[in-house]
Amino acid sequence: MKGNVLVTGGSGFLGKVLVERLRAVGYQVTAPSSRDFNLLYPGHIDEMFEISQPDIVIHAAAKVGGILFNQQKPAELFYHNIMMGVQMMEAARFYNVSKYVQIGTVCEYPKFTDVPFLEEDLWNGYPEETNAPYGIAKKALLVQGQAYRQQYGLNVIHLLPVNLYGPGDNFHLKSSHVIPGLIVRISEAIMAGLPSVSIGGSGMASREFLYVDDAADAILKAVAMYDKPEPINIGSGVEISIESLARLIAVKLGYEGQIVCGANIPEGQPRRRLDVQKAKKEFDFTASTNLSDGLDKTIKWYQENK
Q1: 267 lies in some domain
Q2: Please, how many CA atoms are within 13 Å of residue 153, restricted to the half-sphere of its CB?
Q3: In a domain, 185, yes or no
Q4: Is residue 265 part of a domain?
Q5: Residues 12, 65: Cα–Cα separation, whole Å
Q6: How many folded domains does the chain comprise?
Q7: Is residue 134 annotated as part of the catalytic site, yes or no?
Q8: Looking only at Cα atoms, what is the longest distance across the chain?
Q9: Which of 19, 66, 96, 230 has the fewest CB within 10 Å, making it most exposed?
Q10: End-to-end CA distance of the chain
């Protein structure tokens, strides 16, 4: 595979793995740091495009966080994600990029969606309230991409990954997602000798998780093989309740205390599980890392790097 690829968010959790995969299969990759180019400023974006001269753009940069972060920073989540995305896509049009890959989010789906989530259900309601500013900003970029394809002929594809996890994830409790958050809290409970860990909420909400290496593989396949305007789900197709997840992580960490549910804390969307048949059909993607193995690798990385 040949061509210059510009990856935004290339120093982030997903971006690092993605850049490594792209280079391994022969792409020339530019992955500038946010310290050098602030994607909120059109002048910075223009300079970045002038330097990199990309054939393909993968816009993976995003401002993200867990439920607590979503509650505290809704305006920033909306503004940063929509402004970065809108300006990046306009620059891609101006510089005649051959393909533009927008990394969306499962948070674009309505709060109450039949399980498994079908791509056709994306507009059947309003997103879950704590995720809505982030999810709607990303969904607006789906509309932009389809409009740019129609008017300008820009080949924009929109991918909808579920919750990602793996080595190198964000393990800061104030902004982490559920898996790294649970690993940290249970690890700290072990160190402090605590008899129980409260995970907040009922524990009944379910989530689907995708190992970060699998997500990068899906994006590479989509870059090579998918060229349609319809959004497409990227996931494992397997869901687990938060309580079951916490207990599984506790066993893997060797924690023998109690996992306590029931705290009055928002749980977000009640259930998440994607229908992943289109990704299999369109570009032959199936997740290869099961949750147990992925957790083992993630926990090992955390223990070695914490």
Answers
A1: no
A2: 3
A3: no
A4: no
A5: 13
A6: 1
A7: yes
A8: 62
A9: 96
A10: 37
Backbone φ and ψ for 154, nearest 5 degrees, come out as -75, 125
User: Both tokens of residue 168?
Assistant: 């190198």
Identified catalytic residue from 100, 134, 211, 226 = 134
Residue 138 lies in a domain: yes
Give the domain extent around 110.
4-166+209-238+273-288
pLDDT at 65: 81
pLDDT, one tens digit for every residue, the chain (306 residues)? 578 999 999 999 999 999 999 999 999 999 998 889 999 999 999 999 999 999 999 999 999 887 778 889 999 999 999 999 999 999 999 999 999 999 999 999 999 999 999 999 999 999 999 899 999 999 999 999 999 999 999 999 999 999 999 999 999 988 888 999 999 999 999 999 999 999 877 889 999 999 999 999 999 999 999 999 999 999 999 999 999 999 999 999 999 999 998 766 777 788 999 999 999 999 999 999 999 999 999 999 999 998
Q: Answer for the pair 17, 212: CB distance below 8 angstroms, yes or no.
A: yes
Give me the DSSP letters along the chain: --SEEEEETTTSHHHHHHHHHHHHTT-EEE---TTT--TTSHHHHHHHHHHH--SEEEE-------HHHHHH-HHHHHHHHHHHHHHHHHHHHHTT-SEEEEE--GGGSBSS-PSSBPGGGTTSSPBPTTTHHHHHHHHHHHHHHHHHHHHH---EEEEEE-EEE-TT----TTT--HHHHHHHHHHHHHHHT-SEEE--B-S--EEEEEEHHHHHHHHHHHHHH---SS-EEES-S-EEEHHHHHHHHHHHHT--SEEE--BS----SS---B--HHHHHHH-------HHHHHHHHHHHHHHH-
Quick one: pLDDT at residue 34?
Answer: 86
Q: 186 is written with which tokens? A: 């249970």
d(CA 91, CA 116): 35
